[in-house]
Design brief:
binds adenosine-5'-diphosphate, 312 residues, 13 strands, alpha/beta, binds magnesium ion, UDP-N-acetylmuramoyl-L-alanine:D-glutamate ligase
Length: 312
């Protein structure tokens, strides 16, 4: 088989984020000044592939945007980051996903107000199997459930690992859990899905039921836990000097984890790598401002990252 053309292809949600840092949340009817304001791209699979691109990985994004200013901004930023957008569809009748993120200055926690827009959902017929199978790893969220299932099935058949980022129940959640080789799930989703109140028990239930190659549970500032072959690996969150904003930490963790799979990292190494990249993201406002580059990671990561290759 020829070498993969892309390290990671992400299929899923992309958004335009308006982000403001605030001292506190206003009561209804009250005004609170923004300490800082930024606009930038966001979205689960979208920020995941951008984090890989910053590290020098070859990436592509598959999804939909509306025919509006937000959609144009989203595309422009992907291109500036070197993410391939040849399979990013413009819906001429639709509007794009837009979010307003209010970030608390003291803790970096955020509240998000959003509209998914009216852009259409990707369908299995939109997928280009040859293109998808040129990936070293496929990364999926839940924004296009039918297409995610079809893409995951294709990837599984081709022996390509599938990292899933599932935050809430959607129509095809069972199939997505069954088809993901490496589900990387926030603990709150895991508890919600299994009905358990204990994270460890919920993880064991999920492992027994879907038998993924590995399972990772992310727990915000409490770090992450990896499960593989009856082994459990606890990874603390990376300590940054000052947490400015946790928006997109999970997205970035997924991106780095998917890239780590392509780089051949074993599970504990990959958890450490993803935690480092996600932690560094928290240094700045937004899902992307704080993302480390390959150059910066040289100082902070003990393994060499490949030289930035050019897209073919
Ligand atoms: N405050 C933080 N400081 C350092 N790392 C963090 C922080 N919050 C999240 N992370 C990292 O990002 C990962 C994913 O965060 P989490 O909140 O679980 O996901 P999501 O952003 O999808 O809700 C965590 O496992 C951790 O490695
Ligand atoms: Mg998330």
């Amino acid at each position: 088989m020829s070498a993969p053309r892309f390290d990671v292809i992400g299929i899923g949600g992309c958004a335009w984020d308006l982000l403001g840092r605030v001292a506190r949340y206003p009561h209804p009817g009250e005004k609170v000044p923004l300490l800082e304001f930024r606009e930038q791209g966001g979205g689960q699979a979208a920020s995941a592939v951008v984090s890989v691109a910053r590290l020098g990985g070859r990436t592509a994004f598959v999804g939909t945007v509306g025919d509006d200013a937000a959609g144009a901004n989203i595309c422009r930023e992907f291109e500036a980051e070197g993410v391939d957008t040849s399979h990013l569809f413009l819906d001429p009748q639709g509007t794009s996903h837009l979010a307003f993120c209010a970030v608390l200055d003291a803790s970096g926690e955020r509240a998000i107000f959003f509209t998914p827009g009216s852009k259409r959902r990707l369908q299995p017929a939109d997928l280009d199997p040859e293109f998808l199978c040129s990936a070293g790893c496929l990364l999926l969220d839940t924004h296009h459930p039918e297409a995610h299932v079809a893409a995951a099935a294709l990837a599984r058949q081709a022996g390509i690992p599938v990292v899933t980022d599932l935050e809430h129940a959607v129509c095809c959640i069972e199939e997505l859990l069954r088809l993901g080789t490496h589900p990387v799930l926030p603990e709150r989703f895991l508890l919600e899905h299994t009905g358990e109140t204990d994270g460890e028990r919920a993880a064991i239930r999920l492992l027994e039921r879907y038998q993924p190659r590995a399972l990772v549970v992310t727990r915000g500032v409490r770090g992450s836990i990896g499960y593989q072959d009856d082994e459990v690996y606890h990874q603390p969150a990376y300590q940054v000097d000052r947490v400015v904003d946790t928006t997109g930490a999970g997205d970035v963790f997924h991106g780095a984890f998917a890239y780590g799979l392509v780089l051949g990292y074993d599970l504990p190494t990959n958890l450490e790598f993803a935690s480092l990249v996600a932690g560094l993201k928290c240094r700045r406002l937004g899902g992307r401002s704080g993302l480390p580059t390959r150059e910066e990671l040289k100082e902070l990561w003990r393994l060499p990252l490949p030289e930035a290759p050019l897209l073919q």
